[in-house]
Amino acid sequence: MLTSDINAISNAAVNKADVCNNQFGKYLVRSIMAGFYIVVATILSHVTAAVLFPTFPQFGKVLSSLLFSIAIVLIVFIGGELFTGNNLTMAIGYYNSKCSFWDMCKVWLSSYVGNFLGAFFFSFIFVRSGASRAILTDYYSSFIYGKIELTPAEMVLRGILCNFMVCLAVWTGTRMKTESGKLVVMFCVIMAFVEAGFEHCIANMSSFTIGYMLMGDLDLAGIFRSMFFVTIGNMLGGAVLLALPLYLMSWDK
Description:
CATH superfamily: Glycerol uptake facilitator protein
Number of domains: 1
Largest sheet: none
Oligomer: single chain
Strand content: under 5%
Number of strands: 0
CATH architecture: Up-down Bundle
CATH topology: Glycerol uptake facilitator protein
């Protein structure tokens, strides 16, 4: 890790903070679009798994994990403000004294709210369309309750591991010189966190919205509890477990 790399990330953090502070509407739209992209990946991943669930559930899990990686590709290549990726970027900007603590918190909060608006709205449209409703209802009942029943410690730890990998995918993707190289690295790393069953708060916004609208009997208190602890874990994974060591590795002394 070179100082120039940290400075490049810090400059990206400064740009994010500037847009958020001075062009908030523009920043919010970017965040909402990132929520849309997450739902696109969720639909592709979950419908694929649901189709294969009755006959080849193991293969369906592997394939759906691979396909979910399209989310990070859409965000990186098209553009969008993802809360979990911003945990890394803004933390490094703060560690490097390029952004204030308030700037970091404002970008995090704004992208989180925007991601939720995008994920909720796109998920709502998908469920109301009636597409794949029958197969998704059976598939969601096989895993959605398990997410809510995790202990707080499990939620936090799975959130930490998840966003360490998400931010690692974003960071290593920026280091690749070719678009094909970026695709390979990002697909592999994102697939790893989905396959392992780690928890991503923005992806869960989509999963919980779709699951609640499909089945209607999910515990709302349990959903909010899960979102809280997973979000804490994601923040720690991106801003502490990955961003802090990267910053320390860049020190000359």
